[in-house]
Structures are given as C-alpha cells and as structure tokens.
Design a protein that fits this description.
By secondary structure, this protein is an alpha+beta fold. It is about 40% helix and about 20% strand. It has helices at about 1-35, 85-100, 130-135, 140-145, 160-170, 175-185, 195-205, 230-240, and strands spanning about 45, 55-60, 60-65, 70-75, 80, 85, 105-110, 120-125, 145-150, 215, 220-225.
Amino acid sequence: MRIIQLVAAFLLGAANVAVSADSDLQQLLSRKLKAIIPDAEITSVKPAPLPGLYEVMLGATVLYMTGDGRFALRGDILDLNAKANLTNIRRSEARTVAFHKQDNTAIEFSATGGKSLHTLYVFTDIDCGYCRKMHQEVAQLNAAGITIKYLAFPRTGLEGDSYRKAVSVWCAVDQKQALTDAKNGKDLGQGSCVNPVAAQYQLGQEVGVHGTPAVFLDDGQELGGYVPAAELIRMLKSGDI
C-alpha cells in the first residue's frame, strides 16, 4: 500500500509540474504576442506536429511559435505521407466550436420537408449583391434539406450604414422577415438592443472572411463565396467540395 501511495504522489506531482510548465509557456508566448498585437488572446498552446514548434490558437486562428517566443509562423503544415493539411484540420475544428457558440444568435432558415442534411454558416452583409442573390435562393436550399445559419459581417466594419442595417435586423422581433425585408431594400429604421453583430463580425475576421457571402460547412470547412443554388446542392449531395 505504501508503494502505491508513493507512486500516486509522484504521478500527481509530475502532473502538477506539467500543468505549471504549460501555464508558464502560454504566459510567455502571450506576453511576446501582446508586445506586437496588444489584443491577442491565446486560447490554447500545445506541441505542433513539426518538432520544435508549438501550435498557438487565437480563437479560430492557428499560429506556430518557437518555445522562446522569438519566432512565429503563419502558414499550413502538410503531412506528405498522410496527404493531409494538418493546419487546415485544426482550423476547421476551431471554426466548428466557434460557429456553434453563435447558434443562439444566428438567424436560421431551417431545412423544410424533413431532416436537415447539411447546415451552412453564412457570413452576410445586407447590401452585398451576391448576398442578396443567395438569399433569394434560400427557399430552394431549404427544400433540398440545407439549413442556413446567417452571421453578420457588415463589410464596412462596425460603423456606417452596413453596420446600422445589421443591428436593425438582429434587433427586430421577427429577425427572418427583417433580414428578408432589408435585403429587398426596405429601410428598417434604427434598431437598438444588445446584439451579436460586433461579435459575429469579429468571428468573421478570425476565420478569414474578406468578402461576403462567406460560406462554411458545419464541420468548419470553407466553401467560399456565392455558388448558384442548383450547383451548391449538387456539390453537397455528391461530396464534391
């Protein structure tokens, strides 16, 4: 019994040392990053697939750093044997977590006529021409078993008409109708409430959105911009993505 107790105490002590070391490393890398990017928030640190580097997650953004915090790399690590983009796998995993956190604040147009076969997260701007074109085809996508979850991404940032219109939509009692009305050019006036527009816009920046619509699968994979509904349905059904 005494030996078992000693072994258990040793293992617990080793675990505490490992936790402390991990915490110290994260603090070091965070300090180095904040010296250059003051608002950088590290959410996790772990050894990277490439020896000598650490994978540093900034929300849904993947970065690689050396243990002393001197060097940082932003790019993809490819496993040539497995023929896999390891960075993209982690990026998609992080996006999935981030998207699901917005489920309660996304404006959802659910699949009709049965089970939802696919869910797409779509960063949208009220005035963007291709966003409006895609919205006109949402009913067709819904009928094919595709659920659309809209996230706000005002292209002009967190000021100006694009932002004001997004806030008015997300503050409306009937958000779905308000979004449709706004995309049809109706002036909703100035809405005001506690809203997720800024948080969704920030998430869009984290996941690399540069234009709208920006379409992502439920598993975090990026599909890109506007694709005609018939072609998008074909791609999803065939797995040609």
